[in-house]
Amino acid sequence: MFFWRRRPEDDTARKVRVVVPNHTVPAGTPAKQHPNHVYPGNEVRTTKYTMLSFLPKNLFEQFHRVANLYFLFIVLLNWFPAINAFGKEIAMIPVAFVLGVTAVKDAFEDRRRHNSDKRINNSTCRVYNSVQERYVKTLWKNLRAGDLVHLSNNEFIPADVLVLRTSDEHGLCYIDTCNLDGETNLKQRNVIRGFAEKQSTFEASQFRSNIEVDPPTTKIYRFHGTVVHESGERVPVGTDNLLLRECVLKNTDFVEGMVVYAGHETKAMLNNGGPRYKRSQLERAMNRDVVWCVVILVVLCIIGAIGCKLWLASFTSPDFLPPFITNYYSPSYEAVLTFWTYVIILQVMIPLSLYVTIEMTKILQVFHIHNDPHLYDEERKKRVECRALNITEELGQVQYIFSDKTGTLTENKMIFRRCTIDGVDYNHPPIAEMQNLRPGVATPIHPNARLQDEIQALERGMRLSTDSSLGSRTLKSTHEQRVQEFFILLALCNTVVVAKHPHHDSMNASGVIESPSVITVEVQSNSSAAATTTATKYSRLNESRSVTPSPTSSTRPRLLELSGGQSSLSPICSSSESTPLGTPSPKPVRRLANLLRVVRPGGKHGSSPAVTPSPSGDKKPIYEAESPDELALVDAAYTYNCRLLKRVASTALILVPGEGMVEYELVQVLPFDSSRKSMSVVVRHPVTKQLTLYTKGADSSILSQLAPTDDPAMQLFIFNTQQHLNAYARQGLRVLVMAKRNLSEAEFDAWHVLHKEAEMMHDHERRIRESFCRLETNLILLGATGIEDRLQDGVPETIAALIEAGIVVWVLTGDKQETAINIAYSAKLFSPQMELLKLAARSKDAAETTITAYLQDIERQLPHGSNLTSNPLASLADLPPHYPKRALVVDGKTLTYILDQRSNLKKPFLTLTRFCSSVLCCRATPLQKAYIVKVVKEILKVRTLAIGDGANDVSMIQTADIGVGISGQEGMQAVMASDFALSRFKYLERFLLVHGHWCYDRLARMVLYFLYKNATFVFLIFWYQIYCGFSGAVMMDQMYLMLYNLVFTSLPPIAIGVYDQDAPADLLLSKPALYKQGRLGSVYKPHSFWLTMADSLYQSLVMFFITAAAYSDSTVDIWEFGTSLTSTCMFVNLLHVAVEIKSWTIIHILSMACSIGGFYCFAFVYNSFCVSCFGLPSTYWVIYKTLGNSVYWFTTVLASVLALLPRFVIKVLRSSLAPNDVTKSLLEHRNIRRGEEFLVAWSSNTSSSSVLR
Questions:
Q1: Residues forming the annotated binding site for ATP?
Q2: 520 pLDDT exceeds 50?
Q3: Which of 479, 1217, 1247, 1251 is most deeply packed, by most CB within 10 A?
Q4: What gap in Å lies between CA 587 and CA 574, rounded to an integer?
Q5: What pLDDT was estimated at residue 539?
Q6: Rounded to 5 degrees, what angle do the CA atoms 984, 986, 989 make?
Q7: Cis peptide before 502 (omega within 30 of 0)
Q8: How far apart are alpha carbons 993 and 722 in whole angstroms?
Q9: Where are the alpha helices (DSSP H) in 1170-1189?
């Protein structure tokens, strides 16, 4: 008992792993005695196989497939002498062919992975070498846990590294994690506690502390460890101290750290998933029909076994035994053996090669989709990316689309259009030149003239205050104070990083220290101030000093030294959400030209001011923002001369209108989360020491937290702001409300104590969120902003086409209802003819009442007795044509009630949505998005597609049947989680309506044809058993039997599956309703299989018995008869393809010619040279004799015509009397084109005759 209780404690103790610095281990220590030898190296291998393991491992994987195991069983069965039907070597041909083709494909894919691994493993980094006592150039694959590495700006991080030293005096550095999690915003990392003060004195050789860390996990943002110093002191470390592999060092000159996880133990490799494998609806139906093929095969074998027993039982006399049986026991015993013989000879019924053909067909389909020039984005230089190769046909069967709005439907080009301050609205008209700006960046704005004058008034007040002999500042009005604080909030309340340039690392790529050249730049002061400042400008960091060099110096602005002698106006091109390089900033507001008063911490108004030149002559600094919204707000503040110049962990330096340079202390940052829908920052003024909470967020979050007031002016201010917010929302602008709260030291200290307690609790995430909410109360309103995010080109047309195609479109957004509705009308998600239904309940009962009322109203408008609302699978397709279209709008709070498991509202809600053409969900959280997709997919049993561009869309994308990522500006995480990636939403129209339609139609008809030709061939063999006493004899040569499916008839199905078109692309785009064919799955219905089997049965009867009748009175042998049947079957199959082909191309003709030509070529060679091959019965010269008989040609023509006549007649009658929608549209399209060609020809002839006259 005690033994079993102690084991968990021992397991826990073993979970802590100790990493020792490698330079502290004596050189020459045997590998097995090295303390870090148990940890893997940094070499990575993503390949499946090696040269030695390829064959056994690949075969092992392939035999996990049931079909391959079945055919292996057939091969083994053929080795039993009592039941063998074919030659042992011949029986191995089908399975060897399939295994070989698959193995070649797997080897090719693995070779690509090997080349990628080789390139990565041979990258270089700098590792500390204790023998040479310096950093040396080392390959990534030679890196090990415990090594100290030196990284430069823009360099990829080779392993998971614990930060020990950075170029920043505060021990900060920044990384771009886009390659890991898809987020483009920079993430801040710190050196371990106690090392920030040692940045200037840190020496790699002196670091001798061990590091205890948790075992490696897949959780990217979870890391716990302890640094154990030689003195015994233990310092905890966490995620903020860890640099992850595949990230890029940004905005930092250099970093030194120690490797704690290497190779396959890094979080990047642990999260490196392979390609996605999903099963489509068509594949599921095909698998079901393959099972029916097995049933048919078993039935045929049983019938054959029974027939064999009955035939043998007819030989009753013991003196007259059945012929050709050497060891005869009993009819029952022979029947059992014959059953297994039939399993061998009728094996073609199971379409083994169908799976290989489908795989090849889908690869070719993906190739053509990827190379479609109409889906190529010239501006972004991107094509369609197909990450899931096995669900192309699912693109043609989509019934529901769930789309994000921001960045997916919109451009993600944020334009600062409106703002309201102190109840006054300030309009900012957009500029015309926006086409050359990169998405994801803030666009320049035209300053509002009135607001410009107010800012200038603030600066004039500062000038008067500075020149005043009294040294006192003139009092600002309430409006001026709110204007000033509004822009201070825009500049401070964010997580923007001010880039620092140039990024210089004196260590080159080989680890050698080089002396940088220093250029001194003198800045001439104004005549009224004799002070001068100098700044150090480093020469360009050339390629020898970094694996990945920094941007060229031509893009860097001239630098000025601000307080502390650190350059802060230094842009870096590293994030998509940053101000563009080389783009001149908008003309700034006129400000104090010569002098700016610098207010330092602890300074006094009466002190002699330190004069710093205005940075107006320099280019605008480059900001790294978490989102385009933040960037737009900071840029707007910059335009009005409230400029964020420097930001570190504890302070932010701002040029404030009316005050000059102010260095605020950043006391606490309350980051944004989707529950609070707000973000805050607590700052301390350097002079007044006043603590202020600045908050920005959604109107629903901020307005409800405003402090109550009886002041009529404040009430009017709040009322006007709400009116402005409603107006902004009607214009489709993204609104944010700005507010503040002045805090006393006692209030903040009391809150901070409770907040620290919340951080230590078990459910700390919820507790921290509640702690933030407690501080964000009793707010004072400052104003609000309205930012425009324009729709992408082609979005309205695309959504209108998708709705016309019968696809129900849901847009899930976090915007407020008025904004979302306005954009929905602009995007043609809603039309003026639609009746708008709104669900905005504040309780579960209210939501239930509203849904019930809408359903009752729909029920009254339906035909009497239809009762469609009681059917959860009812839809718009069930409604009369005159039924009015509806659209539904539901807000986030109502969604919460609907999606609650206890509410029982999901089914009524989904029933209501089935009668709506489009649905708009407002204020939806990422988890709600994913849950909506899950509920719709599971309850309504429909095929869903989710499309988004941001990290918050990943759950939704992964939940849907098809996930589409937009490779936009919110990172690549949505793309990495998706099945397909598009560069713009407008390409979804052609992607689904053309390629999706084609892929489904082609693959469905290809599968049915494959099943048809196999069944026809099997039935021919079965009819022959009537003439051979059900003995299992085969009239066809065994080589023909084996190669029929694998070679002779392999190309036509691929031609159908890849290149056939039932309608041209322009017709499918002009008539989106034709998508209905795939959406309803009308090409491959459950009964399609049985119709195909019936057709196969009829055609086999015609071919066999016509051929048998033609040769009944002749002296032909079994092989000539079998060769005639084989060639007849080939012709019928190819003519069947000709009837099914919708658009003839040279590829279709070549596939048919190669099939029949390949058969005859093989037959000529085989019958000419193979007298006795593989131990098979000789068919020498049979093909020549067969072709020389006129009966053969007569039989082939007659059987082909009679076999295909019913199918041809039915197809003609259907096209003439009851054509489907595609056929109707195609006929109309051709008639229109013929009419146009006639008019053109007539016009040309008329013109010619006029000239001749």
A1: 404-406, 630, 672, 696, 734, 813-815, 923, 929, 952-953
A2: no
A3: 479
A4: 25
A5: 30
A6: 130
A7: yes
A8: 43
A9: 1182-1187
DSSP state of 441: S
In sequence order, what are the beta bridge partners of 678? Answer: 673, 697
CA distances from 403 to 60, 529, 916, 947, 951 (A): 42, 59, 16, 5, 14
Lowest mean pLDDT among 591-595, 657-661, 1039-1043: 591-595
- In this structure, the strands spanning 918-921 and 886-890 are parallel
Q: What is the pLDDT of residue 86?
A: 65
Give the integer Cα–Cα distance in Å for 901 and 921.
19
pLDDT of 1244? 55
Give the tens place of pLDDT for each residue, 989-1036.
999 999 999 999 999 999 999 999 999 999 999 999 998 888 888 888
Higher per-residue pLDDT: 673 or 681:
681
Q: Which residues sit opposite 107 in a β-bridge?
A: none
| Composition of the chain by helix, strand, coil, percent to 5 | 45, 15, 35
Closest CA to 570 of 579, 557, 583: 557
- State how far the Cα of 571 lies from the Cα of 621, in Å rounded to an integer: 5
Q: Which of 160, 404, 979, 1062 is catalytic?
A: 404
pLDDT of residue 501: 65
Specify whether the backbone of 982 is left (phi greater than 0), alpha (psi in -120 to 50) or beta.
Answer: beta
Give, for 451, the enclosing helix (H) or strand (E): helix 449-467
Alpha-carbon gap, residue 969 to 1181, rounded angstroms: 70
Task: Yes or no: say if 642 and 488 are a contact pair by the CB < 8 Å rule.
Answer: yes
Contacts of 745 (CB under 8 A, 6+ apart): 691
**Rg from Cα positions in the chain:** 38
1138 contacts 1145 by C-beta, under 8 angstroms: no
- The tally of CA atoms less than 13 A away on the side-chain side of residue 804 is 17
Query: Catalytic site residue 710?
Result: no
pLDDT for 175 equals 87
pTM: 0.72
Q: At a CB cut-off of 8 Å and minimum separation 6, what does 1029 contact?
A: 307, 308, 311, 312, 322
pLDDT at residue 204 is higher than 90:
no
Phi-psi region of 431 (alpha: psi -120 to 50; beta: other; left: phi over 0): beta
Q: Which two tokens stand for residue 936?
A: 């719709």
Q: Which residues have C-beta within 8 Å of that of residue 1141, sequence separation ≥ 6?
A: 1055, 1056, 1060, 1148
Indicate the pairing of strand 242-243 with strand 234-237: unpaired
Mean pLDDT, residues 440-454: 79
Handedness of CA 704, 707, 708, 711 (dihedral sign): negative
Structure tokens, 146: 């415990």
Residue 744: strand, helix, or coil: coil
* 561: DSSP letter: B
Query: Are 969 and 439 spatial neighbours (Cβ–Cβ below 8 Å)?
Result: yes
Q: Which helix (H) or strand (E) holds 1225?
A: helix 1221-1252
| Residue 1192 backbone phi and psi in degrees, to 5 | -60, -50
Contact assessment for residue 965 and residue 946, using Cβ atoms and an 8 Å cutoff = no
Neighbours of 97 (CB within 10 A): 19
CA distance 61 to 463: 80
Measured CA to CA, the distance from residue 225 to residue 1018 in angstroms comes to 67
**What are the φ/ψ torsions at residue 720 (nearest 5 degrees)?**
-65, -40
- Contact (Cβ atoms closer than 8 angstroms) between residue 173 and residue 484: no
Binding residues: 404-406, 630, 672, 696, 734, 813-815, 923, 929, 949, 952-953
Residue 342 φ/ψ, nearest 5 degrees: -65, -35
Residue 160 burial (10 A CB sphere; 0-12, 13-18, 19+): buried
Q: Where are the beta strands (DSSP E) in 988-1102?
A: none
pLDDT of 16 over the 80 cut = yes
Pair 678, 688: CB distance under 8 Å = no
Q: What is the chain's length?
A: 1253
